[in-house]
Predict the structure.
Amino acid sequence: MTEPDEPAVRTARRWLADVAREVGVDPTVLDPAVNDVLDLTKAVAHGPSRPAAPLTAFLVGLSLSPNSPADDIRARLMRIRDLAATWKDADDEAH
């Protein structure tokens, strides 16, 4: 989240920290990944499907171990972001 002084960003950070604690995850795990997750969801929302954006982030999260190194997390997020940027729906191409 690029503007740490914005009220919405501060609220988002507090919300995410509370959610992380509620589900038993160290809230600091988000720190290196926030911008990459936002980039991913933006690419999916503006590419393949807006409703698929949060679900794509969920799937990427499920595919990672809670102890995944930050570099692995970033690489996975960027790989799927790049897939979203180039993805073509086979159904659309058939018509």
Q: What stands out?
A: Residues 70-86 form the longest helix (17 residues).
